[in-house]
Design brief:
alpha+beta, Rossmann fold, 2 helices, globular
Length: about 100
């Protein structure tokens, strides 16, 4: 884990307390995540853990039910994948059918 000081820049992309449900299924619950330039992250977990929902939320496919996305420290709402792409967010999906 990297410790950052107060003078470090804001994350380029962040999630703050993001939740997303599909009916009775809570796919994401109060997720917070900071993504800084030059870092590499991996998501690991069992099937149904929310990995795909998290990525699709970052990519504008899903809108969070609660919480915020921040781009360069400013709140942003993506109304679809084109909005995320225009903001510089791209996802390469493992399954080409997506």
């Amino acid at each position: 884990m990297t410790h950052r000081s107060a003078k470090d820049p804001a994350p380029v992309l962040a999630l703050r307390d993001v939740s997303k449900s599909f009916g009775a299924v809570r796919a994401l619950r109060d997720v917070s995540l900071d993504l800084f330039p030059g870092e590499v992250h991996a998501l690991a977990g069992e099937n149904g853990a929310g990995k795909s929902t998290l990525i699709k939320t970052l990519a504008g496919v899903h809108r969070p039910d609660a919480g915020r996305l921040l781009l360069d420290g400013e709140p942003v709402t993506f109304h679809g994948p084109a909005d995320a792409r225009d903001a510089g967010i791209a996802v390469i999906y493992q399954e080409p059918t997506l």
